[in-house]
Amino acid sequence: MKKFISIALAAVLALSLTACVNSDSLSGKVATDGSTSMEKVIGALKETFEGENKGVEVTYNPTGSSAGITAVLEGRCDIGLSSRNLKDSEIQQGLTGTVLAYDGIAVVIHPENTVEDLTVEQIAAIYKGEITNWSEVGGIDAEIVCIGREASSGTRSGFEEIVGVEDACAYRQELSSTGDVITAVSQNPGAIGYASLASVKDTVKAIKVGGISPTNESVKDGSYAIQRPFLLVTKGELSETAKAFFDFITSEAAGEVITAAGVVPVN
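Now predict its structure.
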């Protein structure tokens, strides 16, 4: 019996040592590509992982959700980043989507705009061009300028699907990144736009939706209406290094990093 226990302990110790060696010797590159809204959270996770694995480099290419999904399909990256759910046609091509976190989509206006709260129905009417003046929703007498993302954007897909304005928006400007939307809204007192909650700056004002402010807490408890998933998109088996990165960022240990980046972790 004692001999059996000794053998078992030796086996456990050997496995532990092997794990340590593998961790120390982990090297290579991990390529990620996709959603510009996920830049902050992926940047924080990349920094943490690289700090613990000196031989690893994680790259991030901010091309937009659909472009990131295409990059995975074509084998140009290890992990795609999407701020929308996968379409059935994409799943049928062998893609797998794993939810990393949940993000609120903030509706943003110019800081000088006096409007504080809009319902989902009012937001829909604004983006469909049915409400065209801020005075119609309790603001000043000024034209509403609708700003949004380009057609391939995951943020746009999520916003339009949740608000119910798919293929019906009267955009004045369609921009290629979250940062561009925030800049455009900050420079136009009549503008309205939408952006990932984690990316909102004090140059714009995030309004309440249906009386609920967009915060990590309201996204987590589901009370904030406009929210969407942040997905990791993969196809087939990952390399050892890419799998190690994937396993880390989807673990409970990464939860604090994800929260600090302004989104709500799944784990």
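The chain has ten helices and twelve strands.
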